[in-house]
Amino acid sequence: xxxxxxxxxxxxxxxxxxxxxxxxxxxxxxxxxxxxxxxxxxxxxxxxxxxxxxxxxxxxxxxxxxxxxxxxxxxxxxxxxxxxxxxxxxxxxxxxxxxxxxxxxxxxxxxxxxxxxxxxxxxxxxxxxxxxxxxxxxxxxxxxxxxxxxxxxxxxxxxxxxxxxxxxxxxxxxxxxxxxxxxxxxxxxxxxxxxxxxxxxxxxxxxxxxxxxxxxxxxxxxxxxxxxxxxxxxxxxxxxxxxxxxxxxxxxxxxxxxxxxxxxxxxxxxxxxxxxxxxxxxxxxxxxxxxxxxxxxxxxxxxxxxxxxxxxxxxxxxxxxxxxxxxxxxx
Length: 331
Description:
The chain is globular, with a radius of gyration of 19 Å. It has a 5-stranded antiparallel sheet with strand order 1-2-29-28-27, with no helix packed on it. It is mainly β and about 325 residues long. It is built from no helices and 29 strands. About 40% of the residues are buried. The two termini are about 30 Å apart. It has strands spanning about 5-10, 15-25, 30-35, 45-50, 55-60, 65-70, 75-80, 85-95, 100-110, 115-120, 125-130, 135-140, 145-150, 155-160, 165-170, 180-185, 190-195, 200-205, 210-215, 220-225, 230-235, 240-245, 255-260, 265-270, 275-280, 285-290, 295-305, 310-315, 320-330.
């Protein structure tokens, strides 16, 4: 399913042509739900929710599977890499009705060997992040309404903080000094100081549950809710929402990701089975929505030295992975 597209767009009043190549492959597992690239951009790790395995792809030969690592734990939810790229952490948990906690599996990325398992004593761990220095793991639990700070080497829980209802996805700012926690049941995103483990402030949405957010390098938080086709931007320096922009052709958005050094915001549209590229300076759509696969649910990207970017999308609905190679030609 290979295609090519070409869009023209003005970045900072300079006309640029985006040449986009679209590839698609089977995830070699059921319900791909999370993605991560290696630090050098040569390897793609895919967590498969129902197959309880990690699929590993060689980026240069995208359609050929490199390896599959089985994970002993029901329902993979999330994954992240250590800062040195040598350890992959995966989070798995039972479904929401069993409420029996979960496991974090540590994997050696060089040979695929399992380095150990950390048991999580919460009820329904949902999302995992590694601290910028690799010392801690951050885990959100939707049922206990807590976020845990865990030593990555020993598995010791060193701190826990209560949040608003149903904390799910999380992001770290560039320096790792705060953690944004998305609380679907509380209509807020809470910012947690990773040193003091206290809540810094809240981004409150008007009667809308946040379903996706991301943080730019210049400390701007982008938020989108399920019931709205608008994107909210929050300035962490002024502690205020500075813009709410309605974007056409966004349908049931589920994921946000920044790329091209924060100049492009990628929005995954569940119902439209597409992604939309947004210019973060103007908050206008670039080109047209790009069809990918059924129920896009996770996005990651890698920027090459020449400025080209690869965007990867996990399509939960049809067990596929889409790869977009985006080249930029300035007129």
